[in-house]
Design goal:
The chain is of the alpha+beta class. The protein is built from eleven helices and twelve strands.
Length: 456
């Protein structure tokens, strides 16, 4: 009897085991395929941003030279050159933000580019007949031209070496994730050399009004006391619901740096991914979180994801926030929320929450804008012009589907109260911000329909 049962069950069990093994192998292959696609896409994006950075700095050098070749009495052309310098510099800074350089001391170079952008913009928009460039400003433009040559040469040298040696940005992320100590990496070495070079530019003296504009994440905006690595370990452990001993904490930035922070890491239970959270040193506020796990097929819609994100905001005491836009890709949605004060959207106080649409997990958070602006006291005054007057600044062909008041930062980072109009024209979605006092256009954004926010 036993032999008969065995003769029947053994092949069945064997077949079941084979099927299970094949299924498991296929699932692992699918997961690996998805992760490989994500990694390849990230690498391609990093490489593109790096090469674009080199290209923009080359353009910046050329535009500075072209502007200096003109006589400043050629008012319109000279002003156009300065405004072009401002635009190109901002494009270069934007590419820097796309690179995985968290934890790398790069604040001197970033400040240099920010100050250059702000100086050129303020000079370019002023009335030269009433306030022409001073001798000191002209000399500084010559110095900036010379320094842009040095930075451009360094970037092109790095670019050539990266291509020749096939260096990947995954290696950069790995090098930066290591504990303190020497970091042997071609790209990191290049950026550190550039940072040292820029810190030695003593011939460029910025006006204080220029310097203060770019200090977006100035730690002086935070009023709390410094926290320790042990404090961060407890905060991260509470967020992840694990024992603090499972959390590894690394301090970023040198003592006294404006960009000091902590990074907390924990390895997933399957050992296949590492979750990371970054915190400010002052106050221990979370400014970044990423869970890079593979995401399965979507089982929830955008509105459901928004409700999940709202629950997360309530749980972690983010108050008076509303969803202002979203962007979904490969079963993940990035939801942007901003603070609401007296029925006015405060765009400087925004954060982004990343939700996995397979099960509603919060897999990412970017909250630096929120953290560094939430303590600002705002006295929002009534608009000088009416909504109807502001509407006159729009094209009559634009079909407006939403209008509201919002505080934004203009091109020189001053906060201004605007009428925000969202609508459609020529099958393209636009968001237009009209200054509520002057009636001037402050900003126009072309965006996809989904970027206007889901229905709530």
């Amino acid at each position: 009897m036993y032999r008969k049962i065995s003769s029947i069950m053994f092949p069945i069990v064997t077949i079941a085991l084979i099927i299970t093994a094949v299924w498991g192998y296929n699932e692992v292959q699918k997961r690996n395929k998805v992760m490989n696609k994500v990694m390849v896409k990230a690498e391609n994006n990093y490489q593109r941003s790096f090469h674009n950075l080199s290209y923009h700095v080359d353009r910046l050098h050329t535009e500075l030279g072209n502007t200096l070749a003109l006589n400043s009495t050629s008012t319109d052309t000279y002003r156009k050159g300065l405004v072009n310098i401002w635009g190109i510099t901002n494009e270069a800074r934007n590419e820097v933000t796309q690179l995985p350089l968290m934890g790398l001391e790069f604040n001197k170079t970033d400040a240099f580019l920010a100050n250059l952008a702000n100086f050129s913009y303020r000079a370019g928009v002023r009335n030269f007949s009433e306030k022409p460039l001073t001798d000191k400003e002209s000399e500084m433009l010559h110095s900036l031209y010379n320094h842009s040559t040095e930075i451009s040469d360094m970037l092109r040298g790095m670019q050539d070496k990266v291509i020749a040696k096939g260096v990947s940005w995954a290696d950069v992320e790995m090098a930066l994730s290591k504990d303190k100590g020497p970091q042997d990496n071609l790209i990191l070495d290049g950026f550190q050399t550039m940072e040292k070079q820029v810190s030695e530019y003593k011939d460029v003296e910025w006006d204080p009004s220029i310097v203060n504009i770019h200090m977006k994440n100035d730690k002086s905006k935070l009023t709390d006391a410094d926290v320790t690595a042990a404090d961060i370990s407890k905060k991260a452990a509470e967020f992840w619901a694990v024992d603090p001993s499972a959390v590894k904490v690394v301090e970023n930035g040198k003592q006294g740096s404006e960009y000091q922070s902590f990074s907390a890491n924990i390895t997933s239970s399957d050992g296949k991914s590492t979750n990371q959270m970054d915190f400010t040193k002052k106050g221990g506020h979370p400014i970044f979180y990423l869970n890079p796990r593979a995401v399965g097929p979507a089982k929830m819609n955008i509105n459901q994801a928004i409700e999940v994100a709202k629950g997360f905001l309530d749980k972690h005491d983010y108050k008076n926030m509303t969803n202002v836009s979203y962007d979904d890709y490969q079963n993940v949605v990035n939801l942007t929320f901003a603070t609401v004060q007296d029925d006015v959207i405060i765009y400087p106080e925004k954060l982004v929450i990343r939700v996995a649409l397979d099960n509603g997990d919060i897999t990412g958070l970017q909250a630096s804008d929120y953290v560094y602006n939430i303590n600002k006291k705002r006295d929002i005054k009534s608009p000088t012009i009416s909504l109807q007057q502001a509407r006159k600044s729009l094209s009559p062909k634009m079909k407006v589907n939403r209008e509201r008041l919002a505080v934004i930062q203009n091109d020189v980072r001053d906060e201004v109260l605007c009428y925000e109009f969202s609508g459609t024209m020529n099958k393209t979605q636009y968001r237009v911000f009209i200054n509520s006092n002057s009636g001037n256009k402050e900003k126009v954004e072309s965006l996809e329909e989904k970027d206007q926010g889901a229905s709530k």
